[in-house]
Every structure is written in C-alpha cells, then in structure tokens.
Amino acid sequence: xxxxxxxxxxxxxxxxxxxxxxxxxxxxxxxxxxxxxxxxxxxxxxxxxxxxxxxxxxxxxxxxxxxxxxxxxxxxxxxxxxxxxxxxxxxxxxxxxxxxxxxxxxxxxxxxxxxxxxxxxxxxxxxxxxxxxxxxxxxxxxxxxxxxxxxxxxxxxxxxxxxxxxxxxxxxxxxxxxxxxxxxxxxxxxxxxxxxxxxxxxxxxxxxxxxxxxxxxxxxxxxxxxxxxxxxxxxxxxxxxxxxxxxxxxxxxxxxxxxxxxxxxxxxxxxxxxxxxxxxxxxxxxxxxxxxxxxxxxxxxxxxxxxxxxxxxxxxxxxxxxxxxxxxxxxxxxxxxxxxxxxxxxxxxxxxxxxxxxxxxxxxxxxxxxxxxxxxxxxxxxxxxxxxxxxxxxxxxxxxxxxxxxxxxxxxxxxxxxxxxxxxxxxxxxxxxxxxxxxxxxxxxxxxxxxxxxxxxxxxxxxxxxxxxxxxxxxxxxxxxxxxxxxxxxxxxxxxxxxxxxxxxxxxxxxxxxxxxxxxxxxxxxxxxxxxxxxxxxxxxxxxxxxxxxxxxxxxxxxxxxxxxxxxxxxxxxxxxxxxxxxxxxxxxxxxxxxxxxxxxxxxxxxxxxxxxxxxxxxxxxxxxxxxxxxxxxxxxxxxxxxxxxxxxxxxxxxxxxxxxxxxxxxxxxxxxxxxxxxxxxxxxxxxxxxxxxxxxxxxxxxxxxxxxxxxxxxxxxxxxxxxxxxxxxxxxxxxxxxxxxxxxxxxxxxxxxxx
Length: 756
Description:
The protein is of the alpha+beta class. It has 22 helices and 26 strands.
C-alpha cells in the first residue's frame, strides 16, 4: 500500500513528510491543522502548519524519523488545547527512493482536563510538563498559587531561577533534586516534597508541598511527561512557626516561674523526677509515678481531674482544671492546673509541660476585682446619669433661656443656636446653623458702615481665645433692620486646650435702652425737682428769718418792759412767745443746714477719721462734762469726702448717743472703723435707751421725733441730715438697736486712695 492510501485510511491525524520538507495531510490532519477539506494534492511545507514553538519541538523527532528511528514529543498545538503526543516514524521511501517520515498526532485523552478541573476544585495546582520539564499545561489553581498567568507559565522550566526554590532549612534546591526531575529520571512518583518559592508578581514567598507523577506511554520504558501537583501550605507553615515560638516562650516562662512545674510523657504518664511536685506535696517518686499523683488531689475532685486529663491527651488540646491539692502538711489548697502539649517539627507531641498555681490569693484578688468593678460600675452609672442630667439640663437651659445663644467653629460658622437667638434675629434655627455668623447677622454697624471681619470682637475671640463683653452693638434682623444688642463672647477649647470656636450669649437691648432713656428722663426730672425744692427750702428758710427776727425783737422788748407789770397770765404768754421764737429759729437753722448739704462745690479730699473724731470730741465736750459721759474710738482709716460735712455727721451721731442716755448709767459712745472693699465701714455705738424696731427706718426721715420735746430737745432733723451727708458721699446708713440696750449706727464712706 502506498503512502497516499495509508493517509486516507487512518482516522488519526497523519502527515507524510519528505526529506525536502513537503507534507501530505490526511483528512484528520487537514481538519486539525488547517480546518479545511482534506486534500492530498497540495504539499505545503510541514513547518508552516505549526506555530514556531511547536515546529521547533518537532524538528528533532522528525530528523530522527528521516534517519530511520522512531521518536516522540509532547506539544500543545495552540493555547488552551490539550497536550498532543506526536510520534515520528520512518515511512517507505517514495518512487525516487527519497526518505520519508510519518508524523502521528494523538491528543491526550480528555480525562486529563477533567482531572485538572477536579484538582482546581480542591485548590491544588497542577502543571503538565514535558520531558525537558517545560510546562505544557496548568490549571487555574496553579496560576493563582504561582502568581503567574497561563501564558507566562507556558514553556517555563521547573528550575527557572526566578522561583528561587529552597528547602525548609533555607538551602536552595539543586536541579537534579527537584521532584519533577527525579520523577522523570526514575519513573517513580515523588510525594509531598516541601518547597519554598518566590513569587515575582507579588514579591512574597510561598511554601508548597509538591508531588510529581511521571507518565510513561504504553510500550515505552521512560516517561515522556510528568504531572506536578502542589498545595499551598504557607498559612500552615506560618501558624506552625508561630506556635513553635509561642511554645518555646511558654516553656521558658514555665521554667522560670516559682509555681509547681511538672512535665509528662506524650501519653500523659507522670514520671520522675518532679522536684517541684515533690517539694509541695511531699510525695516520693514511687508514689507519684504514672497515675500516683492523683492521690494528692482531693477525693471529691479526682473524677473531674481524670476526665479532663484524659480528654486533653486524646484530643491533644491544652489541659486546664481547678482542684484542691494536698500540701505536705496535709492542708488542701485550691489550685489551677494547666498543661500544653509540646509539638515537634514532625507534628507529634514530644511532651506535656504543666503548672499548678495556688489560687488562694488569686481568688481573693478576683473577689476584690469583682467588688472594685461593681463599685466602678456604680460610679460609672452615677456619672452617666449625672452627664445625662447635665445634658438634659443644658438642652432645657438653651431652649428656655431668654437670651440668644449660639456657637461658632474656627471658621465662624454657626454650629448651634437656641430658639431665643432665632426669634431675636428673625431666622429659623436651621437657617442659622451652617451659615457664616458674621456675614449673616453682623455685617454692618448701626450707622450702615460695613463691619470688617477683622474688627469683629467675636472673630477676634476665635483668633486669640480672649473673652470679650460688648455692651452696645447691633445685629441685623432677617427683615433688614438693626437689632441693638449686648453680648458676651467666650472661647471654647478642645481636649488639647486649643481654641476650637466660641459661644456667644446675645441680649436684645431694645427694651433696656428704651427703659434707660425713660429712666434718664425721670432722673433728670427728679434732679430738677430736687434742685427746685432745695432752692425753695433755702429761699423760704432765708426769707422766714427776717419776720422771725422782728417778732423775736419785739417779744424781748415786751418782756423787758412789761414783765411783772401785767398779771401772771400775761407773763406766761410772753414766755410762750419767746420759747416759740427760739424753736422757730432753731428749726429754720436746721432746715437751712439740710438744704445746704451737697450744694457746696468743694472737691472731695482725703480725710483722716481719727482727726475728725478728735474735732467732734471738742464739739461735744460740754455735753460729756455735764453728763459724765465718755467717748472712745478706734478709727485708723482715711476716707474721701468733705471734712466739714463729715465732722457734722460724726458730731450729730455722737451727740445723739450722749443725749438719749438711760437714767441708771452714764452715757458711753464707741466709734470703730474697718476696711470693707472700696468703702470704710464706721460704727457709732451707744449704751442709751435704744429704739424700737418699727422706728429703725423712720428715724432718718425729716422732722421725725420719737419723744416729747419736754423729755429730749430737738427738731427731728439730725438723723435726716446724717443720711443726706452719707448718701452725698456715695455710702449708706442704717441702724441696729434694741430698746433698753443701746443703739448702733452703721455707715459706709468711700475709702481714700493711697497717697503717691
């Protein structure tokens, strides 16, 4: 049978290639390589039917077949296709006697793709490699684990230096020890070889467990392909490394502790020597070996202890239990026993390391901590309640406050505003919040001039953190008219003490200014009325003296000329007339003195109280000598006032104390002074007859008398003059008195400034 008939008869793709490179294709090869209708008339160059990479891989086997030897190669005809096994065999020479070769193409059965998908579902990477270990096909998990795409992996050698393959001890993998190399060389499966690789794409290291499965085609002695299966165990390696480090630290801690430290074999047997256990329990080596240590545990706790220990040794989990352990003196002590398994590099338990901790102090500390936490919880709840109350109160205060209150941040933007501020300025709270405060309500002066931001006291407080009070300013209503206001701007601070904004408390002063204007008018009217009254009193008193002098003169003439010449009743009438003239003259003099208080324009001066009292003593000297009274004082201070008026004030008060004395004791007056802020507080105390409480205020009114003139002389003007003098100096006067126990007059006078 000639080659053409053979090509047509076989179902597998076949190519007949002559020594000059011409190729004849059977229908199956035509469909596989060109996708067209099978035709044998055309004889294209065989290399043009394949990709350059595949043609290069087939060139060696083809040359061997033309030389009379059969050779094979595994190739991937196109990306994503399964592996194709190509067999190159010698063919019968053509009519001209030239050498020919048959290329037989056989694709890897589809179960390989299924197997790749299955492995991918398990998270295992799979790479199919040719005899030269170049990668022919990979699954999705392989690309994920190796950090390279399928295109990047295609044709890459297992020992590509970019992977930097290393052993767990950090030493590099020699090329001939790589699992795929070993499997291809020996034809034996190589299982679970740990390997570290560097992933260039993500710049990190991964740990793999690699298994290499060689594939030997039927009828051959050496493998043509190797399937490498690898699992990413990086997380497990890292966890085991952390665990080993943790166990080593724990063992060091156990060895350094003063607690009872013991160790046991992997099966849980308790073997000597255990020096810490012997010292605490007093057991000998023979008594605590194997399960004998359980005899030192309280009988009621042994069953639970045994159960926990058996569960720990079976599950290889840490052992933890609390029980009572007998001390060498026979006392049972509450203990906490804990142990951990020490795992070797092979994942096997090497030993158990455990401790027994005396829980007596711990229990006490725990109870103390419970009590402390309970107390802290109560305090936190109380504090939380206080904060809630403060917050609620603050909210109510902001809502109920009559003054407008709003807050600003560092930009001058309104962060909150209470309803009073919104009503005052005609905006809603929502409109004010988030708006620049200065541009919204503080942009112009009252006269319409623009208010620069840098001149604004509120903005200045935000800048320098200084509290400011402004008594007269305007803010602008939403309807466009100015609202007169007074405000206080206070800085706010954050936790670090840095200025974070400001709070402004604003008061609408419209009514206050209207009331102040009305008050100024009333004061002006009162002052004018008082001036008119004083002027009237002065003029009236002055004008009354002239007719009084005339009446007094003629009365004296009548007395001198006719006294004793008329009947006794006429003499009595003349005496009444003289007495009335004297009283009238005294009354007019007192009225003139009352009217003159404060009319002098003499400037106030520094006046020493001690000197004034010495002068007042001279004024009442006759009264003191006549009644056997005494005057004492301790007044080292100086006041600011008119000396003549102050002397009259002190003289009147001292005279009253001497005049209104009790019959059973000599009169005594004491004067004291003390500094009280910007004033000097003066007291004038007597031991006289006292004044009933209902008269404590009335005695300072003009013409007020509490006694008959026959008992105590006077016109009822003295204390009224005293009050007017004190008030003229900016002070006040008041009385404390109990009938029969004397009186104390209190008065305040401005302190004199210290001389420079």
